[in-house]
């Protein structure tokens, strides 16, 4: 048997039963692919089911508010995915009469859809032989063929895209693409791949050369920055707090948080008392405060680590318009804020 036959035969026996594999509807395929970017299936599956339940059609998603979409997305991270998802749903409904483009080239024009997602939708839904290249595909192909070109470079993408295009089953691109991704995810895993049971073990260059743990090659990431966040959790005498929507650019755009004071180092209690931004926020108003967590909560993002303290501030009147603390859970928030809301016992 050749490469295609071995792979698709393996897939027919070993594929996982997943809801998006029971449909060719491009809306559901698109939804699953966007959710599963940077997200494992076991984490993404409940989100997929929640989106399908709340927004069963692209028209429902387009008609939802951004806050509804972000709230449902809460906890998945990389919130630009959710914002792009919502933007594109509205574009398809308003500009394309709710009909998805049916070619790779046209799909690529949609916001939030790159090479991988366009290839997946085009092949699975419209049978176009466009090869997918994701992390699982990089890993499998780099090991099987012994390719040491770094995968996070332009040259690496071109190399693996060309190889995947050469290998794809043009008669059945949907199953081939799903098979090669599934193989990398469950058989040729990042750690402890099951080489003894692998149908490609006799032709695998990495197995032959004992380089399984060294492939794929990836250039080192840029240095992660460290930031110090201080959130001001105000509680007024009438049980209200200040909760603001983030504006401007950033991964937390349009999510809600408590007023933030960012500092160059960790604040002590004495530092907090005299910090000019804290004093400016309350503008001379009297308040009492306690530090919720003496040990900083470290929230790790891909490009920065946030060392966070929450300061609980009791005040008669809020320095700006607030909301009742009973309403806090209605707003979309970063997981850092969401975890605090779940852990902290607000007065009732």
TrEMBL record:
Cofactor: [4Fe-4S] cluster
UniProt xrefs under SUPFAM superfamilies: DNA-glycosylase, Nudix
The keyword Metal-binding appears for this protein: yes
UniProt key word 4Fe-4S: yes
Taxonomy, superkingdom: Bacteria
Catalytic activity: Hydrolyzes free adenine bases from 7,8-dihydro-8-oxoguanine:adenine mismatched double-stranded DNA, leaving an apurinic site
Role noted for this protein: Adenine glycosylase active on G-A mispairs. MutY also corrects error-prone DNA synthesis past GO lesions which are due to the oxidatively damaged form of guanine: 7,8-dihydro-8-oxoguanine (8-oxo-dGTP).
EC number: 3.2.2.31
UniProt-listed Pfam families: HHH (PF00633), HhH-GPD (PF00730), NUDIX_4 (PF14815)
Keyword terms of this UniProt record: 4Fe-4S, DNA damage, DNA repair, Glycosidase, Hydrolase, Iron, Iron-sulfur, Metal-binding
EC class name: hydrolase
UniProt name for this protein: Adenine DNA glycosylase
InterPro entries: A/G_AdeGlyc_MutY (IPR005760), DNA_glycosylase (IPR011257), HhH-GPD_domain (IPR003265), HhH_base_excis_C (IPR023170), HhH_motif (IPR000445), MIG/MutY (IPR044298), MutY_C (IPR029119), NUDIX_hydrolase-like_dom_sf (IPR015797)
Transmembrane segments: none
Cofactor binding note: Binds 1 [4Fe-4S] cluster.
Lineage start: Bacteria, Pseudomonadati, Bacteroidota, Flavobacteriia, Flavobacteriales
Domain HhH-GPD: 35-186
Family per similarity comment: Belongs to the Nth/MutY family.
Gene: mutY
